[in-house]
Amino acid sequence: MNKFFKLEENGTTVSREIMAGITTFFAMSYILFVNPDVLGTTGMPVQAVFLATILASIVGSVAIGLIANVPYALAPGMGINAFFAYTVVISLGYTWQEALAMVFICGIVNIIITFTSIRKAIVLGIPESLQHA
Questions:
Q1: CA torsion 123→128→129→133, rounded to 10°?
Q2: Are residues 19 and 52 in the same domain?
């Protein structure tokens, strides 16, 4: 474990990382309860959102730790879920299914932009003064 995560090289120990992980979990644990409550206002099944929040947090946190070797915890964002629920679904009148379809399409578009030369063209289209701002 020390070799894979380069703990000594980064000046830490297994016990310190475990304590940091527990502390981070407790700092973020409110998300497990708030996210289903917020998204539940749209008509989404609260139990399913609760489970999805847990699974997304586990998969994201483990992936970032193993792939990027950084001690970050990932979980659904509380700002974007409020925008999704209160603006897109409640204020604009879309169903939660339609709103999720929009999120899915935006994700596909972002993946396409990232893995093609479109991203570079967009960046080059931004004035240099704004790129450095």
A1: 40
A2: yes
